[in-house]
């Protein structure tokens, strides 16, 4: 008898929590004609973004990383068609790399020339951009691109979560 009640209670809690869970989609883009090492950095950055959002209770999904012309504008309507159901929010990350790898003397190898990261957070239901920031990646003290990914992904996630919480309070 206890087992039935326990299972019912757990099921009820899970359903209740899922009703209050926010969903977030991550879409990462990089410029065209770049080295595969740049694509690896984009993938690593995207992977690192998942954990802080999961830990904060979000259901997170992503689009496959894609190449994009530098001047091409990213339209929300084009992104929406990739989802069966829209997310509450979408985090659009646009990486700009130099065309060629650069040799780093300290690491003694060629690494991606990561120039900028533009981050935009959009409320899907309103279509409004509620957060945008451009990071100058040359200003980060980390030299190794993977370390840079770790640092900037934590900062992006923290600021995006704060913005989402403000947006939820504003729309209550």
Automatic annotation (TrEMBL):
This is Lipoprotein. Residues 1-19 form the signal peptide. It comes from the Bacteria. Keywords: Signal.
């Amino acid at each position: 008898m206890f087992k039935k009640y326990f299972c019912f209670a757990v099921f009820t809690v899970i359903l209740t929590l899922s009703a209050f869970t926010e969903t977030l989609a991550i879409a990462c883009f990089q410029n065209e004609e770049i080295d595969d090492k740049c694509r690896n950095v984009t993938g690593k950055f995207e992977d690192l973004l998942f954990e802080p959002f999961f830990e904060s209770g979000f259901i997170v999904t992503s689009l496959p990383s894609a190449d994009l012309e530098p001047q091409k504008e990213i339209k929300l309507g084009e992104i929406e068609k990739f989802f069966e159901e829209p997310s509450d929010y979408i985090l659009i990350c646009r990486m700009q790399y130099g065309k060629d790898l650069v040799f780093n003397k300290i690491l003694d190898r060629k690494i991606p020339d990561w120039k900028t990261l533009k981050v935009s957070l959009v409320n899907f239901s309103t279509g409004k951009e509620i957060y945008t920031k451009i990071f100058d990646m040359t200003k980060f003290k980390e030299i190794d691109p993977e370390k840079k990914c770790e640092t900037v992904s934590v900062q992006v996630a923290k600021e995006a979560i704060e913005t989402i919480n403000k947006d939820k309070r504003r729309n209550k």
